[in-house]
Predict the 3D structure of the following.
Amino acid sequence: MELKDIVAINGKPGLYEIKAQSKGGIIVSSLIDGKKIPVTISHNISALNEIAIYTYEEEVPLRLIFKTIAEKEGGKEAISHKESSKKLVSYFREILPNFDEERVYASNIKKVLQWYNLLASKNFDFSSIKEDEEENNEQEA
């Protein structure tokens, strides 16, 4: 399982792994219960590899945030996304000290931690995450 194959589907809980292409879209498998479902172009899909978090200087790719959390937690699950907003913001400040607090809401932090914990519970190898885009581009070429 690679991060580029993991997607979030708007309106559906959890994360999904892309399994195959179909005529009208893709087939994905839920990381929560393993059920496979078809996803068409009418669904709003976000690839985790393409998501970034705002900071005051730039946007930081979600994959690097996951890697930082994994290093802090030793690859184990982080704090629960159900903690208070104050605790979540405080924890996230340890991970990404310069995140833009006007554009990154507690609900965004909740989602990041929920996704991280789901991947960690599935023994995702966060050490395989590359630091920069150049390495990803080299692999694709």
Notes: The mean pLDDT is 88. DSSP finds four helices and seven strands in the chain.
